[in-house]
């Protein structure tokens, strides 16, 4: 089982392109982009997001890749 932080809260699947949204949570890029196409709220809290900029989460991506290699996914 991958660590919970590696799982997208929208897709409930292991992330391959994690990005951080304004709510401070990380999501799979394609999933949060679809979410933001019709909503301006946080999928986690339901509160309004102050902006829709998505920052690549390089650290999390590296950790996921290292976990995948160590677990031969």
Automatic annotation (TrEMBL):
It holds the Pfam family U-box. This is U-box domain-containing protein. GO terms for molecular function: ubiquitin-protein transferase activity. Residues 1-73 form the U-box domain. It comes from the Eukaryota. GO terms for biological process: protein ubiquitination.
């Amino acid at each position: 089982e991958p660590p919970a932080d590696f799982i997208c809260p929208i897709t409930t699947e292991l992330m391959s392109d994690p990005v951080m949204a304004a709510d401070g949570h990380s999501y799979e890029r394609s999933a949060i982009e679809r979410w933001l196409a019709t909503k301006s709220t946080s999928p986690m809290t339901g509160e309004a997001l102050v902006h829709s900029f998505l920052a690549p989460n390089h650290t999390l991506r590296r950790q996921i890749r290292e976990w995948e290699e160590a677990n031969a996914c």
